[in-house]
Amino acid sequence: xxxxxxxxxxxxxxxxxxxxxxxxxxxxxxxxxxxxxxxxxxxxxxxxxxxxxxxxxxxxxxxxxxxxxxxxxxxxxxxxxxxxxxxxxxxxxxxxxxxxxxxxxxxxxxxxxxxxxxxxxxxxxxxxxxxxxxxxxxxxxxxxxxxxxxxxxxxxxxxxxxxxxxxxxxxxxxxxxxxxxxxxxxxxxxxxxxxxxxxxxxxxxxxxxxxxxxxxxxxxxxxxxxxxxxxxxxxxxxxxxxxxxx
Length: 246
Fold this sequence. Notes:
The protein has a single domain (16-240), classed as Rossmann fold (3-Layer(aba) Sandwich). The chain is an alpha/beta fold. Helices cover 33% and strands 24% of the residues.
């Protein structure tokens, strides 16, 4: 894939620590007293039913929204611009430009010198399996290809932490595998992946750690192998058995 052009500074955003974090919209508690420590290493996967608070937790970890109670720290400090964090939304918007131009826009936003765009852009497209598609209009890509392009744009920031909100939702098995392969490659490069999914099989394939959310609270969390082999709580056992948590 060629030499990776490093853009990182010496500072770190890890660990990301949430202490008794709450997030309310009017009288509705979206998150309720959530405490979580996100550290370097294998991917952390958030699971749970719709409305559990997974997306809100990702947004708070990214720094897009502030909690209404509790505290969040990044590498021991509070807040600041998310220069070393990136996020891919469940339905990313493609610019009305070519695939290559989408990447170049992201590289420009990340502050990379214009002369380095072609090499870095080619590296990113190769990494996500889109090499040779640079001239194609981004909005004419398939859903899975668009998701991988969104991953490439996020990686243009050379993040330390990458948040992914349901990255394979509505994708067919082949497209899902292609996205999962990119996620594994990203994690293998030392980037911390924090990802939400409804797919328990996907969580088994990807996760190093699992966080089960329900009604805005963490029901159970821990190493994925232990969670799937022997969940400690009744809610987790029922969720893994396919029962609806209401």
